[in-house]
Amino acid sequence: MAKSKIKRKIIAIVQARCNSLRLPNKVLKKFNGKPAIEILYKRLNLSKKINKIVIATSRNRSNVKLINFCKEKKIDFFLGSENNVLKRYYDANKKFKADIIIRITGDSILIDHKLVDKVIDLFIKNRVDYASNSQPVSYPDGLDIEIFSKKCLRDTYRIAKNKYDKEHVTPLMRSLDKFKRINLKNDKDYSFLRWTLDQKEDLKVVESILKYFGTKRYFSWEQILKLTQSNKKKFNANIKIIRNEGAKMSKTQKLWKRAKEIIPGGNMLLSKRPELFLPNKWPAYFSKSKNCNVWDLDLKKYLDISLMGVGTNTLGYAHKGVDSAVKKILKAGNLTTLNCPEEVLLSEKLLELHPWADKVRLFRAGGEASAACIRIARAATGRSKIAFCGYHGWHDWYLSANIKDRNNLGSHLMAGLEPNGVPKELKNTSIPFEYNNFEQIKKIANNNQLAAIKMEVQRNFPPKNNFLQKIRKLCNEKGIVLIFDECTSGFRQNYGGLHKLYNVKPDIAWFGKALGNGYAITAIIGKSEVMEAAQTSFISSTFWTERIGPTAALRTLEEMEKIKSWEIITKTGNYIRKNWQDLAKRNNLEIQIAGLPALSSFAILSDDWIKYKTYITQEMLKTNILASNAVFVCTKHSKKILDIYFNRLDEIFSKIAKFENKDLSIDSELKSAVCQTGFKRLN
């Protein structure tokens, strides 16, 4: 590299890291056998103006390979703050002592040194504090150059207060009147072109460019332009990506976009998808949690007046007692060749709470426990057909109800749910029936040899006309195994199963969700004559023997009993329901409330309800509250916390009333697409 004749020291600081949310390890992606950062460095190193190039990365462990690369190639590097990139630049310059700093991002693999030198000349000639070729943009994305003085960097660093200015380095210095600025504008606008390396779609484009030029160390941006315009289709794979989209997106949005590319649907649980709450706006990922608060990837704190881990955390997030019990187990060892004693202790505790039951089997996930109940019932009776009511998971036995009619699960899960992948031979083996419709289930039982009747104890509304007692009698008469699905209802309205409140004893009951307060554990309990049939089939899994789940469950049950958690959350749930009703009445809205007190939901009776539901979530998020139309109550939902939520909801209901009266348009107020209705739980 030729030394600059200018007395002032000019350093290019290239910010780079390996844990990019959009394209992980992008700076180490190889092209023609060389990592992107090496190609960038060598192209920038051709500059006749720059005295030194420094790779500025963070102390994050993910950057070890990048650091080792710099050491191997004897490239200057600096380790600084992960998120405060402005500080990283300031600290780097304290070490390397530049008078003029050039900011280049690690995305700019095709940076043109001649263009860099041109901006440097512009900066020096005009004696400005800040110079760029991107304010406004006219060059292709990936050629962005920003230059600023030592004083400009220092003053900006001292003034910067908000997170955005610290993370993105230059927005503040571009907005302050005290700094003299200049911009290099191209004669023709090519800002719509994208030659950067920031997202998955960029890989193909950059790879094609570099493959064409082969081993050439230097080729100009004009040559790249000529190439890309000769075959626009080949080089436009990334053309629809919005320029600087990443700077406008939260870490959560970046990760969700990436997730949808590699995970079918974007995540593992349908009911956690952002599209069900607020498309493109819902903070899909959390970094930590405590009580009834969660923090997203940008460390923004939210009050969770929503699902609380889809109903798993009745004691609140990160419960000290439960977590401490788990931590002890982690130190002692979780899964070994031998069995854990906690599985026996937990089984004994569950039988103590349910004297009608004799045997226990432990599982981890709800779907597998639900399917195991069916397997056991079929083994015990020698029959195949199942009648069911409510939601019971994703397994073949359940989804097979839709083979005959794709709307059979319409009142249980969601209408139109496709049973793709379920053997067509299972047609007519699972028969749905309506809650509180005894004549319907009686007819099904009379016309079919049923192995089991599987149902939630209570759905949206309580049983009527001794519905549960009648079903118990029917099962006795027909030799049918009665299975109560207490996955969601268990340990919420009483200490044990909801069926205890109705004094109806099933043959099998199973529990999940609240049982481990956020840790994976489910349990099936049942009568000996039925449960022993499990030994006549093959029901077994390695991770059913791990130690964390049973340990968490034992401590959760202990903590529940100590504070009578079911009484607390039921009382809180009733408080929530009363306030919903009062707020609706005050704003002349008609609502319907459903579910158990601790699992309550509401719906505004309007043709625009789904839009209103979206609007509620949108407006709640503005005040850092996670809320929709359903609340899974936990013991940390204090009156003080809920009153914050209700004050905000009152404002929102007032606005909805204006929508209903046609004084305002709901469509003009929504800032995202309308939420999907996809998954409907009927508790």
Give a structural overview.
- The protein is of the alpha/beta class and 683 residues long.
- The chain has 3 domains: 10-230, Spore Coat Polysaccharide Biosynthesis Protein SpsA, Chain A (Alpha-Beta Complex), CATH 3.90.550.10; 249-316 and 564-683, Aspartate Aminotransferase, domain 1 (Alpha-Beta Complex); 320-560, Type I PLP-dependent aspartate aminotransferase-like (Major domain) (Aspartate Aminotransferase, domain 2, 3-Layer(aba) Sandwich).
- It has 26 helices and 23 strands.
- It has a 7-stranded mixed beta sheet with strand order 5-4-1-6-8-7-9, with helices on both faces.
- α18 packs parallel to α19.
- The longest helix is centred in the C-terminal third of the chain and has 22 residues, at 565-586.
- The chain is elongated and about 95 Å long.
- The N and C termini lie far apart (70 Å).
Low-confidence sequence ranges? 1-6, 679-683
Q: Largest sheet, described in full?
A: 7 strands, mixed
Sheet with the most strands: spatial strand order: 5-4-1-6-8-7-9
Would you tell me the overall average pLDDT? 93
Give me the CATH superfamily of the largest domain: Type I PLP-dependent aspartate aminotransferase-like (Major domain)
Proportion in β-strands? 5-15%
